[in-house]
Specification:
It is built from nine helices and nine strands. It has 249 residues and is α+β, with helices and mostly antiparallel strands. The chain folds into two domains: 202 residues, Alpha-Beta Plaits (2-Layer Sandwich), CATH 3.30.70.20; 33 residues.
């Protein structure tokens, strides 16, 4: 099955809030009064729009190609689907919150105020995708700042815009390589640091780093065991020598 994704072009965003409202309605989340740009990511806000340097900045689940959240979950409550969405199965969740800690984009949020809490985040409108529709946020965008389609095709569009812009865009598609790639891709004309996106991320998928560490665990255990055995033998030998000397005195 083809992996789908979203392309967000910062330069085309009118910061109208249509995507934010569509996400609220689709997920039946409370709509706070006041400026919608003050509604940060939380257990009741799966998509946040922020105003920075005169631009609209989107914050939501990046739907990593190899998601760290899913790799650390001990009960498979988070799953990477063939269409690209990272979905959450609340009936499996044991509330360990490893996903909250592991996410390099600080996306999953925990319902701390509830007696029976769950982890909440964007699921890329997985049910809409399954029905052949686009995510609610993309369908609501009036300026074309948010495009939905095959990830490979969106990357092609992004690089075409960069080439045609002749310096109008930053020569980088955010999400193309970060942590092994994400299904949310971002185009911008100003630095990613100014927009508040983390830029110190490796291009290697984070789950692969975890497995590299785990592969070495048996070696560490064996080496540690050998060292402890050696220390035990030396200690025992010293005690034997000390006892022998006492007998000779």
């Amino acid at each position: 099955m083809t992996a789908m994704g979203l392309l967000f072009d910062v330069t085309a965003c009118a910061l109208c809030g249509a995507c934010w409202l569509a996400d609220k309605e689709r997920n039946k989340l409370p709509i706070p009064e006041g400026d919608f740009t003050q509604d940060a990511l939380s257990d009741t806000a799966f998509l946040a729009m922020e105003r920075r340097q005169g631009r609209g900045v989107r914050h939501s689940c990046m739907h990593c190609v190899q998601p760290t959240c899913a790799s650390v979950c001990p009960v498979a409550a988070l799953e990477k689907t063939p269409v690209g969405a990272v979905v959450y199965h609340q009936e499996r969740c044991i509330g360990c919150r490893y996903c909250v800690i592991a996410c390099p984009f600080c996306v999953p949020k925990y319902e701390w105020s509830k007696q029976l809490p769950y982890v909440r985040k964007c699921d890329l409108c997985h049910s809409r995708i399954a029905a052949g529709e686009s995510p609610a946020c993309a369908a609501a965008c009036p300026t074309g700042a948010l495009l939905y389609g095959e990830r490979s095709a969106l990357l092609h569009v992004a690089h075409e815009r960069i080439a045609a812009g002749k310096g109008a865009y930053l020569d980088r598609v955010y999400g193309e390589h970060e942590v092994g790639g994400t299904s949310l891709l971002i185009l911008t004309d100003i630095s990613l640091e100014e927009l508040g996106y983390p830029t110190n991320l490796s291009s290697n998928p984070m789950p692969s780093l975890t497995w590299e560490a785990l592969v070495n665990v048996p070696r560490v255990v064996l080496l540690g065991g050998a060292m402890l055995t050696g220390l035990w033998w030396l200690t025992k030998r010293r005690e034997e020598v000390r006892a022998a000397r006492k007998e000779q005195q």
